[in-house]
Design goal:
By secondary structure, this protein is an alpha/beta fold. 66% of the residues lie in helices and 7% in strands. The chain has 21 helices and 10 strands. The strands form 3 sheets. The chain has a 5-stranded parallel beta sheet with strand order 7-6-8-9-10, with helices on both faces.
Length: 612
């Protein structure tokens, strides 16, 4: 059953188009991309939309990740994940009444370079890709404006994170304590962001908040009950500060608690040293600690003289990168490598932009930046070389992790494929054993009968050839002719030789009579012999016909039996051969699966977990 999808822009009902790929919100009219597996994961999508529209971005991020566990190529989930990471809320413009994106989690990196946004573009079809690109461009333009405004804002030393009002709209105790902290820090000249006093009515808050989060060295997270730490905007602020801290370990976060135990703090905050606001001297202690942190690093020495050409180009490239115009940034860094090959910043800057500050890895990206990074390491000196060597080593570790993960995914996919094939083969073998296994016992008997019938046919064929029309009659006929001629010649010779002396006295007529009588006598003798041969040949031929008929009948009967045996063998033998091949494939697959299983799950705990 298809789940009714909620609009990710306003939460209204979505009307599906005929192609089931896009829809339109019936309330705000916004186009909506329909996920491919809406029947299976539609409820998760609606839950993620609910969280995002209520600005619970961390929960929406986790929900989108759950969706991607079901389908790792779901474009809409990647797009929603990117929107959540940047804290995008679509707010109605009072003038145009259109929903426009609003940032609650601005980042320095353009959303167009975000890996999840890029994957959304990669996995989307043509129509959905156009929609994502259009939205991405709008969001990137707004992000650029926020960054420009944020860069113009003053820097802060301390950010006080707290909940201003309770559910009844009354001011919270955290707000009062935070204001006291603000005044104490302000007395010392420590620039402090405190929303109640820092933010001005009517101004756009996000550029100010982002600038304060980005520049502050210290964040105080003030809470008088565990629930307030997880309130939407409080968590939004401290989670963003923690994210910035990942790239700047000089940032310090200090949870301050009251009326609760430090063990009740959110897991992310519990990892840091917390301060109890109930303790005497808390205010003095925290102010003293902040003063030390703020003054820990001396002011950087100002460079004398005009800005150099290479410094200006590096600054321009960095600005283009922050604005999301990575192609221009790469172009400048490439020009730097051509003009100043002995300065590592051109080589390193190109590699940094292409890898999204060494956070994004693909084989193509690595091939493009490897030479630049190695050149940067060759020309860099001293501490600069040590720093970029550290970053490059981290990126190589990321490469190894990604490649290992990719190989593991390939092996896991192959494992699943082998398992499916194995199950199919086993079902095939079971079907054979249930239906045809009993036939195998017949084969040996059929082979024996086949051989016997073939030998019988050979013997019958030989007998039939031996009893073909008898040659005795022909032999006797030939013998009669020869005997007749011999008798004639002998008669002639026996008559002629005694009368040879009297040959001159014999009259010609008598001589002719003598010759004719000799011939007739020979013919009579030959005829008698031929007649006898014909009689005997006829008798033999009649007998041969009877024998041939009998042998032919036996031959046809045995041949029919052989054909029937061959047919039975022809039915059983291919099925057996196919089953033998199936069994061999099963053994081979089981061996391959065992090797893959050992490779993937060599750890005992993982192996036990895998096999359930």
């Amino acid at each position: 059953m298809l789940v009714a999808m909620k609009c990710p822009i306003c939460g209204g009902e979505v009307k599906l188009n005929s192609d089931m790929k896009m829809g339109e919100c019936e309330y705000c009219g916004s186009p909506v991309v329909i996920p491919q597996n809406m029947e299976k994961i539609g409820n998760l999508y609606n839950l993620a939309t609910f969280y995002r529209q209520n600005n619970e971005f961390d929960r929406s991020i986790e929900t989108y990740k759950d969706i991607l566990k079901e389908d790792s190529e779901e474009a809409e989930a990647y797009f929603g994940l990117a929107m959540s990471k940047y804290g995008i809320e679509f707010v109605e413009d009072p003038k145009s009444h259109k929903r426009i994106p609003t940032f609650h989690r601005t980042k320095e990196k353009s959303i167009l370079t975000d890996p999840d946004y890029i994957k959304a573009i990669e996995y989307a079809d043509l129509s959905c890709r156009s929609y994502y690109q259009e939205q991405g461009q709008k969001i990137a333009e707004i992000q650029n404006e926020i960054l420009i405004r944020a860069n113009a804002e003053e820097a802060f030393d301390v950010f006080i994170c707290y909940k201003e009002s309770d559910d009844s709209g009354n001011r919270t105790e955290e707000s009062v304590i935070g204001q006291e902290l603000y005044y104490e820090l302000d007395k010392l000249g420590i620039k402090t962001f405190f929303a109640r006093l820092t933010l001005k009515p009517g101004e756009e808050y996000e550029p100010v908040i982002f600038s304060a989060l980005r520049t502050a060295k210290v964040m105080l997270v003030v809470g008088c009950n565990p629930q307030n730490y997880n309130s939407v905007w409080v968590k939004n602020e401290w989670s963003r500060f923690l994210e910035l801290r990942e790239n700047d370990h000089g940032k310090v976060i200090i949870p301050c608690y009251k009326n609760c135990s430090p063990y009740e703090l959110p897991r992310e905050l519990a990892a840091f040293q917390a301060l109890d606001m109930n303790k005497i001297g808390f205010l003095q202690d925290v102010v003293s600690g902040i003063k030390k942190i703020v003054n820990l690093e001396p002011q950087a020495e100002q460079k004398s003289g005009p800005e150099s050409q290479i410094d200006r180009l590096c600054k321009n490239a960095r600005t283009f990168y922050d604005l999301g115009q990575t192609e221009k940034a790469e172009q400048i860094y490439t020009e730097l490598t051509d003009s100043y090959p002995d300065d590592y910043r051109g080589w390193w800057g190109f590699a940094s932009v292409r890898t999204n500050q060494f956070q994004t890895y693909t084989r193509e990206i690595f091939a493009a930046v490897k030479g630049n990074a190695e050149n940067a390491l060759k020309v860099a000196k001293g501490s600069e070389k040590e720093e970029i060597q550290r970053i490059w080593d981290q990126y190589l570790n990321l490469k190894n992790e990604k490649e290992s993960a990719r190989k593991r995914r390939e092996d896991e996919a192959l494992f699943q494929q082998y398992e499916q094939q194995l199950q199919q083969l086993k079902k095939k073998r079971e079907a054979y054993e249930q239906t045809y296994k009993a036939e195998e016992g017949k084969l040996s008997g059929l082979y024996k009968e086949q051989k016997e019938r073939q030998e019988m046919l050979q013997n019958l064929q030989r007998d039939m050839n031996n009893h073909s029309r008898s040659s005795i009659a022909d032999k006797l006929t030939k013998a009669g002719l020869i005997i007749g001629m011999g008798v004639a010649v002998l008669t002639l010779v026996s008559t002629f030789l005694p009368n040879l002396p009297y040959l001159n006295d014999i009259q010609a007529w008598n001589f002719v009579q003598w010759i004719v009588s000799s011939i007739l006598l020979g013919a009579l003798a030959g005829g008698i012999v031929w007649g006898i041969g014909s009689i005997l040949g006829g008798a033999m031929e009649t007998k041969d016909r009877m024998v041939q008929k009998n042998l032919s009948g036996k031959y046809n009967k045995i041949n029919a039996e052989l054909q029937q045996i061959n047919q039975e063998i022809g039915k059983i033998e291919p099925r057996k051969k196919e089953n033998d091949a199936t069994c061999a494939s099963i053994k081979r697959l089981e061996k391959d699966l065992e090797a893959l299983r050992h490779k993937l799950y060599s750890n005992t705990n993982n192996e036990q977990q895998f096999w359930g």
